[in-house]
Amino acid sequence: MRGVCYRLPILIIVLSAIVATTNPLCAQTAPLTIATASLPATTVGSDYSFTFQASGGSQSYLWSLATNSKLPAGLKLSNHEGKLTGTPIAVGEYQFTVVLTDLSAPSLRVQRGYTLVVTAGLSIDWKQVPRVSGTNLGGSVIVANGTDHAILITVVVVAVNQIGRATALGYQHFSLASGAEQVIPFGSSPGPGTYYVRADVSAERRSGKGSRRAHKQTTEPLVIDTV
Length: 227
Description:
The protein is mainly β. Helix content is 9%, strand content 52%. The chain starts with a helix and ends with a strand.
């Protein structure tokens, strides 16, 4: 009996160690972490969908924004899925802080700051800078679609004289694939005068959802002398 009494405390210690390693309530919880390091950039009018990644804690999460943090207009954050979705409507670099809380008791809480870059997605520039040749005023523009979808493009180029009268130099309406560029020549004889040339491009999706605009204008006057 005396030998049994000596062995009993040892048996209790062994059983306690087994329970501690098999009972999930005794296991140490990993630290709560927001694993996402950065956000992919997007363009105005493009559909955006990104899911934040996390680890640790109770694995049952609640996502939110820190006080005074704002998402770009057109985007929203799903509280339970941690998914950022929507269609941004303005160009900019948007900074905000995401908060992650787990649903354990007591709960764990961490936060992380992010910057989301939203670009125009539609651009226009001179391919051949407008110039006067005799009585003709002409040049060309290059239009680029930086979005992730095809868009319907309308380009209007006008020459505006010193009294504000506009003369059309070019017009085109066409579809432009994602990542594609198009060179558009223009030219006309608006008559004697001093002119500035302005090129405007507007775009929308075939579905009619989301619109964009961009423009380019000369900074120096272009003179057509009296013939």
